[in-house]
Design a protein that fits this description.
Layout lengths: L3 E2 L20 E8 L2 E8 L5 E8 L2 E4 L19 E4 L2 E5 L6 E5 L6 E2 L6 E9 L4 E8 L8 E8 L6 E5 L3 E7 L5 E7 L10 E7 L5 E9 L5 E6 L5 E5 L6 E6 L2 E6 L17 E3 L4 E8 L2 E8 L5 E3 L6 E8 L2 E7 L6 E6 L5 E7 L14 E7 L3 E8 L6 E2 L8 E5 L13 H7 L4 E6 L8 H4 L9 H15 L8 E6 L1 H12 L5 E5 L5 H7 L7 H5 L7 H6 L13 E6 L8 H13 L3 E6 L9 H19 L16
Parallel strand pairs: 1-32, 33-34, 33-35, 35-36, 36-37, 37-38
Antiparallel strand pairs: 2-3, 3-4, 4-5, 6-7, 7-8, 8-9, 10-11, 11-12, 12-13, 14-15, 15-16, 16-17, 18-19, 19-20, 20-21, 22-23, 23-24, 24-25, 26-27, 27-28, 28-29, 30-31, 31-34
Helix pairs in contact: 3-4
């Protein structure tokens, strides 16, 4: 069948906002317990609720009963909200942030942690002492910011006992196989954990206290990621002391490199429980490393220090569990949804797909497979991104027309984008948009030096790189220079708004819960990021002039094109007034704009109806601004001053 010629942007597509919500889940885990496989599902169709699910001989079944939502809000981003043990699961419930225990066999969950303004994360079980250990974030003081520590609590519930405290942040507690020592990560303001943190190791006394703590690695200029003990009790960890996040160990009283490569075996520690490797024996580990936008699975010989690639059909792996030569992981291909799979550890072949993130059969012919691109940017440097061409087997654009381009600025800003299948991007490419997902200077995955390009330069380097990505694709003759849009959420929303205020590259933009006033962000945001801007902008209030200089709200005269704003009204990270200020300024200038607010949404939209409204509203917005009629009658939004 010959493709039907239709204007770019107007192509009908089976990749709908409804498909992203009612038929899609966010897979987490997996967890292996007594030979059974468990995982979590975040379900937009259930208001963003996360549940624990298990594989059964006949299919799958929910473990978490109705009315419970597995989620913690430590650092606001949460993560590692459950731990499994002895036929049960301990999890944090979103509504009250208490720890609940539930039998896997039967019974309703019952709370075990005390009532109070407490939040828990990163739990582990200390079998020898009959207790659980958690990272605690205590919000009970109204006179100061929350306090963080590592605490223990009897498994049946009871009082909390502080094991270590005094620093601003803690994460990743791990107990040695013999139960006699514990490792953990800690850091202080103004550092973020990827700037520099410390790895500590202490003995555990007979009564459970930590004794003789020793600083193993890390500091103000060294980032440590994912400490793990091997079966023989050797402590392994990822460090970027070489300039790249590589695997190290603590041996003979000192830290030593296991395998040094110009590749990243670590990630930015935005959420608890993030991991990139698992130790399967005293001499071997299975891990993944980032190269040119993709995660490569590899076998690591811990004795020889060699890294051997394992060829698979995937470009990303969430949670690596290895047993009997089989890897169980939530894996990401480039041409289809994430799936919980079992992989032969020797050959890399997929043995079995247990569950897919999308229940509807998916036609990969509608998928745009990304190309990693390098492009010139300011200062004679090179930046990176992933380019997605329009893709739809039923449609083609007119010969005399080039596709509109959406430049995506990822969040963080010290985060990264990768080539794993992202239906949010395919939503656009299958309709006839080109997309470039930019790993601007400051992104992870390209070494510490690249990550540090953003130091003191947020609001400059990121927007220069986003603009130069668009200019590069225009110069290549791939996109329409008169229909260039930029979009981003959170920190990506800041880059979006700033690019529209301080540069003249783009013709439209969309900000989802983006930052418009850096000064307000510095004064109002939550503890985890309350000093983040010290490294990205400068200390506040000493650098107040720079904060104002790089805040779009103080430079609204620079806006000259339409902007769409989407915002959750319960957002504690980027308060709703940030979007309101931009909307007011656009209205005063008489520029076309949309301002859509969602009741009950926090930082990131989790409810199906709001996700659908945001995507269809954005498509409707581009149709009106760029002059095409979108297929499927997307939900309209009000565009003021059109």
């Amino acid at each position: 069948m010959n493709p039907k010629v239709l204007p770019y942007g107007s192509w009908p597509s089976p990749i709908t906002a409804q498909l992203m919500t009612s038929d899609a889940v966010h897979l987490g885990g997996p967890f292996l317990e007594d030979g059974e496989i468990f995982w979590t599902e975040g379900r937009a169709a259930e208001g963003g609720r996360t549940v624990l699910v298990r594989q059964t001989p006949t299919g799958q079944e929910d473990v978490t009963p109705s009315g419970y939502n597995i989620r913690n809000r430590v650092h606001e981003y949460g993560g590692a909200a459950l731990v499994m043990h002895d036929g049960g699961v301990y999890f944090q419930n979103d509504a009250d942030q208490r720890i609940y225990r539930q039998s896997l066999a039967e019974g309703e969950p019952s709370p075990v942690s005390p009532k109070g303004e407490y939040r828990f994360a990163n739990g582990l079980i200390d079998d020898a002492r009959g207790r659980g250990i958690w990272v605690l974030e205590d919000h009970s003081s109204n006179d100061s910011e929350a306090s963080n520590s590592i605490v223990s609590m009897p498994l049946e519930g009871g009082d909390l006992t502080t094991l270590v405290s005094g620093n601003d942040f803690y994460s990743a507690p791990k107990i040695s196989p013999n139960g006699k020592s514990m490792a953990w990560l800690t850091w202080n303001h103004p550092n973020m954990p990827w700037d520099g943190c410390e790895l500590w190791l202490a003995d555990i006394s007979d009564d459970g206290r930590l004794e003789s703590p020793v600083l193993i690695a890390g500091g103000l200029q060294e980032s440590i990621f994912q400490p793990e003990f091997s079966p023989d009790g050797t402590l392994y960890f990822v460090s970027d002391r070489s300039g790249w996040w590589n695997l190290h160990r603590y041996a003979h009283g000192a830290a030593e490199a296991v395998a040094i490569q110009k590749a990243e075996f670590g990630k930015c520690y935005w959420a608890f429980g993030m991991s990139t490797y698992t130790i399967i024996s005293e001499s071997e580990a299975i891990g993944q490393y980032f190269v040119e936008g993709r995660w490569q699975l590899a076998r690591i010989d811990l004795s020889a220090g060699t890294v051997t690639d394992i060829p698979t059909a995937f470009v990303g792996f969430g949670g690596l569990h290895v047993a009997d030569g089989v890897i169980t992981s939530v894996a990401s291909p480039v041409d289809g949804p994430d799936a919980l799979v079992r992989i032969d550890a020797a050959t890399g072949e997929t043995i079995e797909t247990l569950v897919s993130a999308i229940s509807t059969p998916f036609d990969s012919s509608y998928v745009s497979v990304p190309n990693h691109i390098d492009f010139p940017t300011e200062g004679g440097l090179t930046a990176h991104g992933l380019y997605y061409a329009p893709a739809n087997p039923e449609c083609a654009g007119p010969k005399d027309e080039l596709p509109p381009l959406i430049v995506v600025s990822h969040g963080g800003p010290t985060g990264a984008t990768d080539a794993g299948f992202d239906m949010r991007l395919q939503y656009w490419t299958s309709r006839g948009f080109a997309v470039v997902d930019v790993n601007y200077g400051g992104s992870t995955g390209y070494g510490r030096e690249y990550r540090e390009r953003l130091n003191d330069q947020w609001g400059i380097v990121d927007i220069d790189d986003c603009c130069n990505a668009a200019k590069h694709l225009v110069a290549q003759g791939l996109v329409d220079p008169k229909r260039l849009a930029i979009r981003g959420s959170s920190a990506g929303g800041y880059s979006t708004i700033s690019a529209l205020a301080f540069r003249d590259t783009f013709n439209a933009g969309t900000s989802l819960y983006g930052i418009s006033d850096l000064e307000a962000m510095a004064k109002e945001t939550h503890k985890f990021e309350s000093r983040y801007l010290d490294g990205l902008i400068g200390p506040y209030p000493e650098a107040i002039d720079i904060y104002q200089e790089r805040s779009a709200i103080h430079h609204t005269d620079g806006f000259d094109c339409p902007i769409a704003l989407f915002q959750g009204l319960e957002d504690k990270i980027v308060p709703p007034n940030q979007a309101q200020m931009i909307a007011d300024a656009l209205n005063e200038k008489g520029l076309p704009y949309a301002h859509v607010e969602f009741e009950g949404e926090q930082h990131g939209f989790r409810r199906a109806e709001n996700i659908i409204s945001a995507f269809e509203g954005e498509l409707y917005f581009y149709g009106k601004i760029f002059g095409f009629d979108p297929a499927g009658n997307p939900r309209p939004i009000t565009i003021h001053n059109l």
